[in-house]
């Protein structure tokens, strides 16, 4: 009986320790890196997005937006039609749209809010 209690105590201690270690991790650990010049998330498509988008306006205009992929496409088309934005090659446009939708979607996961 004593050995069962001892084993149960050890097992419980291990489980508690694992639980404490797991729960002590930050819930929303953001391991993304940000470009110090633009504030953009450094991710696939970041460089081409920086090249095309910051040629005309600041990165903050993009960072504060919250668009779906189709919303970003509509904005780009509007800029091409109304603001004389150049034609973006299809492969580059796909990279830009994927980058923007992933990092600056409707929930704006990478919009650094001032506290």
Provide structural commentary.
- This protein has a domain at 30-103: Cytochrome c-like domain (Cytochrome Bc1 Complex, Chain D, domain 2, Orthogonal Bundle).
- It is mainly α and 115 residues long.
- The protein contains 5 helices and no strands.
- It has helices at residues 2-23, 46-53, 59-63, 69-82, 90-103.
- Spans of at least 5 consecutive residues whose pLDDT stays below 50 are 20-29
Radius of gyration: 23 Å
Number of helices: 5
Distance between the termini: 56 Å
CATH architecture of one domain: Orthogonal Bundle
**What proportion of the residues is helical, as a percent range?**
40-55%
Largest sheet: none
Full CATH superfamily name of one domain: Cytochrome c-like domain
Write the layout of secondary structure elements.
Blueprint: H1 2-23, H2 46-53, H3 59-63, H4 69-82, H5 90-103
Helix pairs in contact: 4-5
Key words describing this protein structure:
115 residues, mainly alpha, Cytochrome Bc1 Complex, Chain D, domain 2, 55% helix, 0% strand, elongated
Question: What's the gist of this structure?
Answer:
The chain is mainly α.
């Amino acid at each position: 009986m004593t050995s069962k209690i001892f084993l149960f105590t050890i097992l419980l201690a291990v489980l508690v320790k694992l639980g404490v270690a797991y729960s002590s991790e930050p819930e929303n650990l953001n391991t993304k890196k940000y470009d110090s010049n633009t504030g953009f998330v450094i991710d696939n498509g970041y460089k081409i997005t920086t090249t095309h988008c910051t040629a005309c306006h600041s990165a903050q205009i993009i960072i504060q937006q919250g668009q779906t992929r189709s919303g970003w496409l509509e904005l780009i088309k509007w800029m091409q039609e109304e603001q004389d934005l150049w034609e973006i090659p299809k492969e580059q446009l796909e990279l830009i749209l994927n980058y923007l939708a992933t990092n600056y979607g409707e929930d704006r996961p990478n919009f650094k809010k001032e506290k």
